[in-house]
Amino acid sequence: MATAVRDCILVQFADDSQLLMTGTINELYNLIVRAERILKMARCCFQINGLNINESKTKCIFTGSRQFISQIPVDTKINFNGFAIEKSIKVENLGVYFDQYMLFDSHIDEVCRKVNGTLIYLNRIKDRFDSEMLGMVVRSLAVSILDYCLKIWGSTSKQQLQRIQRLQNFAAKVIDGEAKKYDHVTPILNNLQWLTIKQKIDFDLCVMIFKILHNLIPPWLFNLIRVGDRRNRQTRFNDDLFVSRTNTDLGSRAFVVRGPSVWNKLANQLKASTNINSFGKKSVVFVFRRRLDRSLF
Questions:
Q1: Is residue 154 predicted with pLDDT exceeding 50?
Q2: CA 288, CA 155: separation in Å to the nearest integer?
Q3: Distance of CA 25 to the CA centre of its chain
Q4: At what angle do helices 131-138 and 158-176 cross, to 10 degrees?
Q5: What is the pLDDT of residues 253-295, one digit of tens each?
Q6: Which three-class secondary structure state does DSSP give residue 253?
Q7: Contact 239, 209 (CB under 8 A)
Q8: Per-residue pLDDT for 159 more than 90?
Q9: What is the mean pLDDT of the segment spanning 16-39?
Q10: Do residues 62 and 87 make contact, with C-beta atoms less than 8 angstroms apart?
Q11: pLDDT tens digit string along 165-186?
Q12: Structure pTM?
């Protein structure tokens, strides 16, 4: 399928297919023409293989900076087999909501709605569980939602991360059973051996980079360059990763910026790990030794 549908990036999972295209605002008209041609090509390819595309459920989203999005006419449409696909401000992808600015505000709103209601209910009936069972229920019904695809939507703003952190604090207090609303949550998190949301995000980034550097995931996913390779000479920072420069807040939250930045702060003994399980365990221990530091590493 990927070889038949060209001039775009085709991403498929189960019965979901996505066509990704890039371009500048000056290329908007050509992008729309390309999209209509590619959609027609994809529809023919699917039909040949006995599959159908539901045009009425097909969505289109333009992603970029606020300046970029503001220049796209409101009435912009893409014609697909007689249907006019209007541009959406958000789309759901495997349970994660992507908005046009890639800030994940919509996803955070949805997570907060689900988890807050669940925790309020569990807090009311917590006396019906023993401590072990209560912990299992809270982790299954609430914490699992907070952790889902954290490395993806973790690039959201600090304000949104604070909303998620408050939910994690609430979950910890529900499990504790005795904590009051305004009690300090750090001792409870320590007792549960939970990483904060910021720490979880940075930890996931480091695990991802470890897998990339050790060829545990496709190398084409991200191009990570060591400082020594870029400078073409040996330096004491030879094992550090090159951090791409950016002038925007959105750019600073990109994986190629955040990932190497966090990785370079890791202790050398962690970077030297050769086993993913060993790396994960040592990293968590390292975090708790530096719990007083607000940053992960």
A1: yes
A2: 23
A3: 26
A4: 160
A5: 888 888 888 888 888 888 888 899 888 888 887 776 665 455 4
A6: coil
A7: no
A8: yes
A9: 89
A10: yes
A11: 999 999 999 999 888 878 899 9
A12: 0.82
Contacts 24+ apart (CB under 8 A), 121-128: 122/174, 123/170, 123/174, 126/174, 126/177
Parallel, antiparallel or unpaired: strands 96-99 and 90-93: antiparallel
162: pLDDT strictly greater than 60: yes
Instruction: For the beta carbon of residue 256, count every other beta carbon within 10 angstroms.
Output: 17
Q: How many Cα atoms occupy the beta-carbon half-sphere of 75 within 13 Å?
A: 0
**Residue 120: both structure tokens together:** 């309020």
Count CA atoms within 13 Å of residue 269 on its CB side: 6
**Unique residue bearing structure tokens 């390309």:** 34
CA distance 33 to 36: 5
Separation of alpha carbons 225 and 242, rounded Å: 6
DSSP assignment letter at 201: H
The Cα 13–Cα 84 span in angstroms is 24
Locate the DSSP E strands across 7-155. Answer: 9-13, 16-20, 60-61, 77-80, 83-88, 90-93, 96-99
Secondary structure (3-state) at 97: strand
CA-to-CA separations, 86 to 56, 59, 78, 95, 99, in angstroms, rounded: 11, 7, 7, 22, 15
